[in-house]
């Protein structure tokens, strides 16, 4: 099939590349000329395991190409995917300006029948808006061309996006048209060759809602466990043991019940907010979803507050080594990362921060922490430790899992670790003479 994927970010680039890998002819479009120029030269704008090799292979096979011009890439297109950003608007709702801009351009330029797919995460009712926008442009041009708008929300995880896309747990397709559903089924069937068929079809509105509900459910599990961690700390229970105790119940399960420094990233924070807003717009006060967000906002600062309780409010002259900046391992994405909030708070209180992350240092230096003074970046985790008063672990990258604790002790001024991801063995650290602070353990 001939596919056009509009928006070449995490979702668009991964989807487009994986569709090409399955033998489709894919053109990925972006308004960011710099990004497209780089992609043309084989420079991948994001870090995602396995992506670079797959992009290069498909470019050389001529199944994948890049362009800034949507107008030149609709003529032979069977399916056009809208995969642009849907950032949080000022009032918490999803800002649809990029999605509707693309819809307008599609309406202005399409010449043959088309299936238009909303792959971006968009609130219920967006497909109707996309349809109306395209219709309006066709009317202006005084032409009648058949098109159908389908919802196909994306569930990939940054850091494991290629695996998720190539072997999906499920693909949700919301469509009110049989022909469009058939095209989508044909497109996705090859992805289920080695597994059972996991394509779930439904109406458009239910598909739009499914994406928000999935993210809100996962965010709820995280906030629930963080709240439990805070209670455990007050009553003298160990949340790490409680976690294992409840996870063994198959109705609960182990995933997404790790206590930590709160969720971040480009999706959960904005999607939870947008779902709350959608409920509100429809006259419903989504109390639980609001609480998930409130708990998370507070949780991001729990580890900073522990540091302040240990050293006092004045951190002048204190050096804090920070391991991990990305919102989770295997990505350079720092959107809404707890590290941003924690580092800002430490610096506000006078601390000097020595930071290292395997992939997210450029993002931090040039964007998210650009204006934050007193942060120095190092090329390795051990370099951050020299004369440090404490080490703070914020992202559970594999390279942080089993560090050489003797090296830590020899470099640091104080043998103190604040663990925002509860990944170390407390007994081991205490036996080595460390003071060890974690989430949910007094
Ligand atoms: N990042 C994830 O893990 C993830 C997972 C599932 C769903 N989503 C959803 O997918 C959507 C895209 O997310 P992302 O993380 O890939 O975003 P992103 O910000 O990484 O990329 C969006 C891209 O769209 C481009 N763009 C904007 N307007 C355009 C236009 N008019 N024409 C062409 N290109 C345009 C931007 O230049 C940018 O490169 C969002 O709705 C997001 O919520 C993201």
Question: What profile does the largest beta sheet have?
Answer: 6 strands, parallel
CATH class membership of the largest domain = Alpha Beta
CATH architecture title of the largest domain: 3-Layer(aba) Sandwich
Give the names of the bound compounds.
nicotinamide-adenine-dinucleotide
pLDDT under 50 segments (min length 5)?
A: none
Number of strands: 14
The shape, in one word, is: elongated
Radius of gyration: 24 Å
Mean pLDDT across all amino acids: 97
By CATH, the superfamily of the largest domain comes out as: NAD(P)-binding Rossmann-like Domain
Distance between the termini: 58 Å
The proportion of strand residues reads: 5-15%
Q: What number of structural domains do the residues give?
A: 3
* CATH fold-level assignment of the largest domain: Rossmann fold
Compact overview of the structure:
By secondary structure, the chain is an alpha/beta fold. Helix content is 42%, strand content 14%.
Folded structure, characterized:
It is built from 16 helices and 14 strands. It is α/β, with parallel strands linked by helices and 442 residues long. It has three domains: 2-202, Rossmann fold, CATH 3.40.50.720; 212-298, N-(1-d-carboxylethyl)-l-norvaline Dehydrogenase, domain 2, CATH 1.10.1040.10; 300-438, NAD(P)-binding Rossmann-like Domain (Rossmann fold, 3-Layer(aba) Sandwich), CATH 3.40.50. A six-stranded parallel β-sheet has the order 3-2-1-4-5-6, sandwiched between helices. Helix 1 crosses helix 3 (51-60), helix 8 (204-235) crosses helix 10 and helix 10 (268-281) packs antiparallel against helix 11. The N and C termini lie far apart (58 Å). The mean pLDDT is 97. Bound molecules: nicotinamide-adenine-dinucleotide. The site of nicotinamide-adenine-dinucleotide (NAD) has 26 residues, from helix 1 and helix 4.
């Amino acid at each position: 099939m001939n596919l056009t994927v509009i928006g070449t970010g995490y979702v668009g680039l991964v989807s487009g590349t994986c569709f090409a890998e399955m033998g489709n002819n894919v053109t990925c479009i972006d308004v960011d000329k710099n990004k497209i120029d780089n992609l043309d030269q084989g420079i991948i704008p994001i870090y995602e395991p396995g992506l670079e090799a797959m992009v290069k292979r498909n470019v050389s096979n001529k199944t994948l190409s890049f362009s800034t011009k949507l107008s030149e890439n609709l003529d032979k297109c069977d399916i056009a995917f809208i995969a642009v950003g849907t950032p949080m608007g000022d009032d918490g709702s999803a800002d649809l300006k990029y999605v509707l801009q693309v819809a307008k351009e599609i309406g202005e330029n399409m010449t043959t029948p088309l299936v238009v797919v909303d792959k971006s995460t968009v609130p219920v009712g967006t497909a109707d808006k996309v349809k109306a926008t395209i219709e309006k442009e066709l009317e202006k041009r005084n032409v009648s061309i058949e098109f159908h708008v389908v919802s196909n929300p994306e569930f990939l995880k940054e850091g494991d996006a290629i695996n998720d896309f190539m072997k999906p747990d499920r693909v949700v397709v919301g469509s009110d048209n049989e022909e469009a559903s058939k095209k989508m089924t044909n497109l996705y069937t090859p992805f289920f060759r080695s597994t059972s068929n996991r394509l779930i079809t439904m109406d458009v509105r239910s598909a739009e809602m499914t994406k928000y509900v999935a993210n809100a459910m996962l965010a709820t599990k995280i906030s629930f466990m963080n709240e439990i961690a805070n209670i455990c700390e007050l009553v003298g229970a160990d949340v790490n043991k409680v976690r294992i105790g409840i996870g063994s119940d198959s109705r609960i399960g182990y995933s997404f019940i790790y206590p930590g420094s709160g969720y971040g990233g480009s999706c959960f924070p904005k999607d939870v907010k947008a779902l709350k807003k959608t409920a509100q717009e429809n006259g419903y006060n989504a109390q639980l979803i609001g609480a998930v967000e409130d708990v998370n906002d507070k949780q991001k600062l729990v580890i900073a507050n522990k540091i302040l309780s240990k050293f006092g409010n004045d951190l002048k002259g204190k050096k804090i080594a920070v391991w991990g900046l990305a919102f989770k391992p295997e990505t350079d994405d720092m959107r809404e990362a707890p590290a941003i909030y924690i580092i800002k708070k430490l610096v506000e209180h006078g601390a000097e921060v020595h930071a290292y992350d395997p992939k997210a240092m450029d993002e931090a230096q040039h964007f998210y922490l650009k204006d934050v003074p007193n942060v120095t970046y190092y090329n390795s985790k051990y370099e951050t430790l020299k004369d440090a008063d404490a080490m703070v672990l914020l992202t559970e990258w594999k390279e942080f899992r089993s560090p050489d604790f003797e090296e830590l002790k020899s470099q640091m001024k104080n043998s103190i670790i604040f663990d925002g991801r509860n990944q170390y063995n407390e007994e081991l650290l205490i036996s080595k003479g460390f003071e060890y602070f974690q989430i949910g353990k007094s």
